[in-house]
Amino acid sequence: MSLSRPEVHPVQSPNVLSPLFTAKMGSVSLGDAVVGMTGIITAVGTTSLLLREKLFSMGIVPGTFIRVKSFAPWGDPIIIEALGYLLSLRRSEAEGIYFKDSESTSVDVNNP
């Protein structure tokens, strides 16, 4: 009987960045947004696969233009406008959505 060593996988180089990490760079979390901010979604990195699928089915995908409309009186939920409709999200759900503020992009806010 021989004992074999477990297979060792090389650790990823710190220079190799995951696509989600790269998309989040320079972006704002929707959970940290303020009323009136507009921008384009760069990443949807929620921990729940079911929530991610629901968001995708409603058009909350990278490249979608969004506008933060308002907050409930105690700051939760957050109401955003996307694709011509209003969507209400819990702050915990919104924290996994990242967008690039329109001030740092070349988006025409009057013509999304």
Write the layout of secondary structure elements.
Blueprint: H1 19-24, E1 28-29, E2 38-44, H2 49-57, E3 65-71, E4 78-82, E5 85-89, H3 91-94, E6 97-101
List keywords for this structure.
112 residues, alpha+beta, SH3 type barrels, six-stranded antiparallel sheet, 3 helices, 6 strands, 28% strand
Explain the overall architecture.
By secondary structure, the chain is an alpha+beta fold. It has one domain: SH3 type barrels, CATH 2.30.30. The protein is built from three helices and six strands. The model is unreliable at 8-20 and 104-112 (pLDDT under 50).
What is the overall pLDDT average?
A: 76
Low-confidence stretches: 8-20, 104-112
Helix proportion range: 10-25%
Which band does the percent of strand residues land in?
25-35%
Look at the helices and sheets and give the structural class. alpha+beta
Number of discrete domains: 1
Strand order in the sheet with the most strands: 1-6-2-3-4-5
* Bulk shape: globular
* CATH fold label: SH3 type barrels
CATH second-level architecture: Roll
Number of helical stretches of at least 4 residues: 3
The multimeric state of the shown protein is single chain
DSSP E strands, number:
6
Give the biggest sheet.
Answer: 6 strands, antiparallel
* CATH level-4 homologous superfamily: Ferrous iron transport protein A (FeoA)
